[in-house]
Design goal:
By secondary structure, the protein is an alpha/beta fold. 31% of the residues lie in helices and 10% in strands. It is built from five helices and seven strands. The chain has helices spanning 2-14, 96-106, 130-143, 157-171, 174-180, and strands spanning 16-18, 41-43, 63-65, 85-87, 112-114, 149-150, 153-154. A hairpin with a 2-residue loop joins strand 6 (149-150) and strand 7 (153-154). Helix 2 packs parallel to helix 3 and helix 3 packs across helix 4. The protein is globular, with a radius of gyration of 21 Å. The N and C termini lie far apart (96 Å).
């Protein structure tokens, strides 16, 4: 039994990777494991990262911690199908819609998102009003349908319903919007 537990622990350890508190501007390829596709948990806390394109080969990444970096609203994120947890607190995200649309497109399975202490995430701690905080939550919840936790609070059913009520018209695709438009009547001139 002890041997099985050691093997299990070794396999779990091989799925986790941390470069936290290193002050890195980028992650050099020579520091990354050859089998990036096996990594499920990656902690990059307190570095100077601005670009996340190096994550392209982390196809099984489920948890990504990016607290205290230099991530902004226009960050380039590869498609991360398995990512369900993202902590991106204390960064430089100042355009909520741009950033959340990127997440919605590239991280479709996201369930847990924390982006506290970013300019685009108003709260009591950074000078935001309660109304700004509530609107921020509604917008994020409306764009990320699988989200069950935002920052330090669980997403309630009432909150999801209100988010959908407020933001669904804004999130319709161009095709959906055009199908909702009333058809125009065409008048042909009478040639008699």
């Amino acid at each position: 039994m002890a041997t099985i537990n050691r093997i299990r622990a070794k396999n779990e350890a091989e799925k986790k990777l941390s470069f936290a508190y290193q002050g890195l501007d980028s992650i050099p390829d020579q520091l990354l494991p050859h089998a990036k596709h096996l990594i499920e948990y990656l902690d990059l806390t307190e570095n100077n990262l601005e670009d996340l394109r190096f994550l392209i080969d982390f196809s099984n990444l489920q948890t990504l911690i990016l607290d205290k970096n230099r991530i902004n609203s226009n960050v380039k994120i590869p498609h991360l199908d398995m990512l369900h947890t993202l902590w991106i607190n204390h960064n430089q995200i100042n355009n909520l819609s741009v950033f959340i649309q990127t997440l919605a497109k590239h991280c479709p399975q996201l369930k847990y998102l924390s982006m506290m202490n970013n300019p685009a995430a108003p709260s009591f701690f950074n000078g935001g009003s309660f109304k700004q905080y509530t609107d921020y939550r509604y917008y994020v919840i409306s764009q990320l349908p699988r989200l069950i936790m935002l920052d330090d609070r669980q997403v309630s059913l009432e909150e999801r319903q209100e988010a959908e009520r407020i933001y669904t018209p804004m999130t319709l695709t161009r095709r959906e919007r055009s199908s909702l438009k009333t058809p125009r009547l065409s008048v042909t001139p009478n040639t008699q």
